[in-house]
């Protein structure tokens, strides 16, 4: 964002869900947070009075500061960060403008119940292929960008969850898993309040078709199935390496659904 002082809600939403998404810091007053049912995707709460001492990962890119209306709390924090040479800006109009634009939000009650702290820790079966790549992608891009993942032998997932405090997913008998014909990805979209976002809803169909042998659900499911199994074959037991490569696939699918799904190609190309 190159040190602009503010960013509009629509422009920020276009950046969320992508690999170079900005860090979003929620500096609302505690009473405003308590009164709200939603959170900006991927945001983390901090006290703006401590902005001079905030630390970020070395790879952190642009930082967006968000308060209720985009006034003193966000501007104070952004000013402190900019004085330190960090690429920080404020969300124009804050949460009020985001809600007015009817942009997606994470269900706050679910986030507090399932993943109350960041970095959150999650655990599932090793050797992920489709759903167990899609779910971590969703978590990192929309719920907790600092999330960490453990991959263990299937019988050990419940015990590791108990011992480590990790959140188990995509195994039988837990909340974040398959529901009938729907995948764990579907379940997470529903619980975290994202199922009505059009591109994510379409992506869920693709994931479900690929993960449950239902290519009739979405034409792209066949391609996702093939690419996912190919990545798995190449990655062997390197589950985290598979996630890195798999996230590129889901970033590309989500970008296509948002911006290029109507584009068509043909050969020979017609002259302009």
TrEMBL record:
Checking InterPro entries in the record gives: ChrB_C (IPR018634), Rhodanese-like_dom (IPR001763), Rhodanese-like_dom_sf (IPR036873)
| Coiled-coil residue windows | none
Q: Rhodanese domain spans which residues?
A: 18-107
* Extent of the signal sequence: none
Tell me the Pfam families matching this sequence.
ChrB_C, Rhodanese
Gene3D superfamilies for this protein: Rhodanese-like domain
Cite the SMART domains for this sequence: RHOD
PROSITE patterns listed in its UniProt record: RHODANESE_3 (PS50206)
Annotated protein name in UniProt: Rhodanese domain-containing protein
Q: Which organism is it from?
A: Pseudorhodoplanes sinuspersici
Upper lineage: Bacteria, Pseudomonadati, Pseudomonadota, Alphaproteobacteria, Hyphomicrobiales
